[in-house]
Write a structure and sequence with these properties.
The complex is a heterodimer. Chain A is α/β, with parallel strands linked by helices. Chain A contains 7 helices and 7 strands, in the order αααββαββββαβαα. In chain B, α4 runs antiparallel to α11. Classes of the chains: A alpha/beta, B mainly alpha.
């Protein structure tokens, strides 16, 4: 071998340069998902022993259906669903799912990156009914909508709350506008037989305010 | 024939009736509202409405240092605050990868189990009271008081404990604590036995709880149940065995399970868990090793005062921890502990600064309250009370 051809490769094999560490063998679940879904798996890590897979938003429901139904995964418990707002970064949001299996002793964290513009992911409520309320909470806190969820109304916040409080651009001390008091009849329809009794103190005033 | 005239059916013009149970109702522990649509006395449809105690724990945690979150965790499940303390610091310690001395781990186990007993005593006492067994409630609450005095002895407060720290505990178990613990555990056992003698063979109590609020094993798993609610359906899933943390793998205990998954099973599972917790405490006291109650890692634990005043490194470390707070390396960690209600998980994301990017609590009773409509529909209105009592909803951790 001539010296010329050996020179370009010299910096790579120099003894003082840190040798590139061999790519760590992905954990078994990650490997299984990569074999099954290929390109849809965006990344993975197993920091602190928590196996984590990041997947593409498109077709995520298939991945979750596979995770639930395949006997090698058998994730029958949907432990947690939340989102994280990494504000300056793109994609801005990450929806984070924690899954646990009762039959196979393993856990998995699945992350779905979502863009800041009209953030939306698929609802997994059909797979785990536990996701119902978690998705409602995530929706009101981060403004991420869940496609296919039938009832995304606020859970912890009240009707008329403006903004999404867990977004990083929501200031902690922000004041919310006062919600005008609504008459009882407008809030709940008790049917014709049970008309609300007009209380001498409050309702007359609020009724007038509402109509004006 | 004349006398039976009043038996003729009369048309009263019935229609479904909507009632609101809560938010202010003696049987609603904390504040929750249930809108029920009734057909006669049977619940046809139900909707749970929560959020009356939402205080923005996660937002608050994102705007403060890692240490300052610990007092907030007291307010999550306020009948077993020490488990929350332990769960949170375990998640942060996972981020830091610090090892806590074994004595501190044993102390954490003992205090967690005391908290679990108080949690279960509250739940079972309250659900017994709500179906009419007032005496049991008073006895259980008295037993709980014995334990809270112990907690006060260690932490200085009954409920707002704020006892754990990142890398250790605030203090060691005080002098004379173990003797006191022995005496108190005997008293708790007495209260348990006496309380059970009153109600477990009481027909009224059994009729109110048996076959009420059944949720099958499959549905419970689907709903994400954990803890005593899942074990009552017969699944022996306990995080202390499934994913052992602290030193639970060195301690002897059994996992009680139910068979049907009704309110009575949940009651019995909790009663048996109290006994197992007492067993864990006794075993842990037996094995309690000597040593430190905190680690010596300078990233999380302040140096001794002698070093602070006599060395520049000690002064700098002290200053950094006080002014900026401990800074974990960037990353994310999820750590779950077996809370009084089930899997209490903390998901902490760090970007390397002194403030968490995200500090998420996975509340165990969130799933239970979401499943209350499914458990309740088809039952009588009066059954809402034992069902709701058996899920042990804690507003603080439900709504955070």
């Amino acid at each position: 071998m001539s010296e010329d051809s050996a020179k370009p490769s010299a910096p790579e094999t120099a003894p003082d340069a840190p040798a590139a560490p061999p790519a760590p063998e992905p954990p078994p679940l990650t490997r299984l998902l990569q074999e099954q879904f290929g390109e849809r798996v965006l990344g993975h890590h197993a920091q602190h022993g928590d196996e984590t897979v990041s997947i593409r938003r498109e077709g995520m429901r298939d991945v979750f259906a596979f995770l639930k139904r395949d006997p090698r995964c058998a994730f029958d418990l949907m432990i947690d669903l939340t989102a994280v707002d990494y504000l300056p970064r793109t994609p801005r949001f990450e929806v984070v799912y924690h899954l646990k299996s009762l039959t196979v002793p393993h856990r998995l964290r699945v992350k779905v990156p979502v863009e800041a513009q009209a953030p939306e992911v698929d609802s997994i409520r059909e797979l785990w009914i536990a996701a119902d309320w978690y998705e409602r909470e995530c929706h009101e806190m981060y403004g991420i909508s869940f496609k296919g969820h039938p009832n995304l109304k606020p859970l912890l916040l009240y009707d008329g709350f403006e903004g999404h409080p867990l977004r990083k651009d929501y200031p902690k001390g922000r004041q919310q506008p006062l919600v005008p008091m609504r008459p009882v009849k407008e809030r709940y329809d008790y049917g014709e037989r049970f008309q609300p009794v007009e209380h001498p103190h409050t309702p007359a005033v609020t009724l007038e305010r509402q109509e004006s | 024939m004349e006398s039976q005239r009043h038996l003729k059916p009369l048309d009263f013009g019935s229609e479904p009736m909507t009632i609101e149970l809560g938010p202010q109702h003696p049987a609603m522990h904390g504040i929750t509202r249930f809108r029920c649509q009734l057909d006669g006395e049977v619940i046809e449809k139900m909707e749970a409405d929560i959020g009356y105690l939402h205080r923005g724990f996660e937002k608050e945690a994102e705007n403060t240092t890692y240490i300052n979150v610990i007092p907030y965790t007291d307010r999550l499940n306020y009948v077993s605050p020490l488990i929350n303390n332990v769960g949170y610091v375990l998640a942060v310690e996972k981020l830091f990868q610090v090892e806590v001395p074994r004595r501190a781990q044993y102390a954490r186990v003992i205090m967690s189990e005391i908290s679990r007993i108080t949690d279960h005593l509250t739940c079972n006492g309250a659900s017994a009271m709500e179906v009419g067994a007032m005496t049991v409630f008073l006895w259980f609450i008295k037993a709980r008081e014995h334990l809270w005095e112990l907690v006060e002895e260690v932490t200085g407060a009954r409920l707002t404990t704020n006892w754990t720290r990142i890398g250790g505990n605030a203090n060691d178990l005080p002098y004379g604590f173990l003797t006191m613990l022995d005496e108190r555990l005997v008293k708790v056992e007495e209260a348990l036995n006496e309380g059970e003698a009153l109600i477990l063979r009481n027909k009224i109590f059994i009729d109110r709880l048996k076959d009420i609020g059944i949720l099958s094993r499959e549905r419970a798993i689907e709903h994400g149940f954990t803890g005593p609610m899942l074990r009552a359906t017969g699944v022996p899933y306990d995080l202390r065995r499934a994913d052992p943390y602290l030193v639970y793998d060195e301690l002897d205990f059994e996992i009680p399970v139910g068979t049907v998954g009704d309110c009575f099973d949940r009651f019995l599972v909790r009663q048996e868990e109290i006994r197992q917790s007492i067993r864990i405490i006794r075993h842990a006291v037996e094995k309690l090793p000597p040593g430190d109650f905190h680690c010596r890692d300078r990233r999380v634990w302040m140096p001794d005062k002698y070093e602070v005043f006599n060395s520049i490194e000690g002064l700098i470390d002290h200053f950094k921890i006080v002014m900026e707070g401990p800074k974990p390396p960037p990353g994310e960690a999820y750590h779950a502990v077996e809370g009084g209600n089930g899997e209490l998980g903390f998901y902490v994301v760090s970007d390397g600064s002194g403030h968490p990017v995200k500090c998420r609590v996975r509340p165990p009773c969130f799933n239970y309250v979401a499943a209350v409509p499914e458990m309740t529909v088809g039952h009588y209105v009066a059954d809402i009370v034992p069902i709701f009592g058996s899920i042990n909803m804690i507003g603080g951790e439900l709504e955070r």
